[in-house]
Amino acid sequence: MAMMMMKPINLHFSDLKKLRNPYPNSRPQHARSPNSLLIRKSLETNHSLLEPSQEFARSLIHEFNPHIPIEEALTPPSSWYTSPSFHSLELNQVFFRGWQAVGCTEQIQEANSFFTGRIGNIEYVVCRDENGKLRAFHNVCRHHASLLASGSGKGSCFVCPYHGWTYGLNGALLKASRITGIKNFNVKEFGLVPLRVAIWGPFILLDLEKDKFDEHDDVGMEWLGSTSEILSTNGVDTSLSYLCRREYTIECNWKVFCDNYLDGGYHVPFAHKDLASGLKLDSYSTTVYEKVSIQRCDGDEDFDRLGSKSLYAFIYPNFMVWALDGHKSVIFDYFLDASLKDDEAFVTGSLKDSEQVQMEDITLCESVQRGLESPAYGSGRYAPMVEKAMHHFHCLLHQDLIN
């Protein structure tokens, strides 16, 4: 195995600023620390502001029926891809629950290193403390809510840029400036609010629903189910070395990009002619697991950078791996097998091939988004022989949205 890239889909939406509460009252209750309860109380105060739009969004869920066989089923309606309130509902029901891939171990290899990110309106920071322990927190100062850290880097503590409150990399409040005269203030209750964080293979995962990770938890089974061993066997493991990162801004709903990845190679001969020339598309197959779908395709052995076999894994809701025998690629984070680290021609050619595919897919996805916003389109149909993974994705999404 040579190169692998991962593709998490960042969440962007024009109406995102209207989302105020990532924890609606309907969510399961969990035991939380005083820190969590303090923040939860403030979030619930704003819950009423969401109710009208959320009720409308919930009404849209039932416009898709997951129980109709794929041969007869309609795709989800265009409103699932265009409604701001529906996107807010997805954040609450999908992205703020369960494991989400947010980075890779290369970003925090050393003690005192950190990186930050955002999922919806959840700002987070992932770090290794001075003892090398992996930790994650809401990236929000407990004083007046300023973002605490930015970007990535190294440091022995986090100092708020607003009023100088200082936190250790274990989350403890170390210094609260100019609070002489304050009453009923317990410093232990004003540490950073923790998030559940774990590592699987080269990936760092966050669970925004829970705040603690039990060392006995089986992250592989929780996140990947029965495909954990399949992906490990196909080289998605800690033996990969980090190569580089590329980020793309695409003017489309996140599901449009997922749908594009899950059409069973349907679009490849039409949109990716160079890629298609190295694949034996008649060999394309799709297998659906619990919350993962895997597409496979044989390649032309004469096409060096594609190798002889490929595997396309989609991990619900938005994480994708394109693995090829000889080359593994998906966008954003690129990893390289140690045996090829000095093969500059291979790396350059692979990155060039990937860039071409991504630009072709961006054109497709932005075109689809414009079509979804047209009054001429309501719902579409599935191609049953190739779009099983897409249908599976829509059914999983529907299941999360109604819970």
Written account of the structure:
This protein is of the alpha+beta class. Helix content is 28%, strand content 24%. The protein has helices at residues 34-45, 51-61, 79-82, 84-95, 219-224, 228-233, 254-261, 268-271, 273-276, 344-372, 388-402, and strands at 3-8, 99-104, 113-119, 122-128, 134-138, 152-154, 157-159, 166-168, 173-175, 196-200, 203-207, 241-245, 279-288, 292-299, 309-315, 319-324, 327-328, 333-336. Strands 1, 12, 13, 14, 15, 16, 17 and 18 form an eight-stranded antiparallel beta sheet that branches. Strands 5-4-3-6 form a four-stranded antiparallel beta sheet, with no helix packed on it. The chain has a three-stranded antiparallel beta sheet with strand order 2-11-10. Strand 15 and strand 16 (319-324) form a beta hairpin. Helix 2 crosses helix 4 (84-95) and helix 4 packs across helix 11 (388-402). The radius of gyration is 22 Å and the shape is globular. Catalyzes the first step of the osmoprotectant glycine betaine synthesis.
Q: Key features?
A:
403 residues; 2 iron, 2 sulfur cluster binding; 24% strand; 4-stranded antiparallel β-sheet; single chain; 8-stranded antiparallel β-sheet; EC 1.14.15.7; transit peptide; globular; oxidoreductase; 11 helices; alpha+beta; 18 strands
What is the topology?
Blueprint: E1 3-8, H1 34-45, H2 51-61, H3 79-82, H4 84-95, E2 99-104, E3 113-119, E4 122-128, E5 134-138, E6 152-154, E7 157-159, E8 166-168, E9 173-175, E10 196-200, E11 203-207, H5 219-224, H6 228-233, E12 241-245, H7 254-261, H8 268-271, H9 273-276, E13 279-288, E14 292-299, E15 309-315, E16 319-324, E17 327-328, E18 333-336, H10 344-372, H11 388-402
Antiparallel strand pairs: 1-16, 1-18, 2-11, 3-4, 3-6, 4-5, 7-8, 8-9, 10-11, 12-18, 13-14, 14-15, 15-16, 16-17
Domain Rieske: 99-206
Family: Belongs to the choline monooxygenase family.
Pfam family, one: Rieske
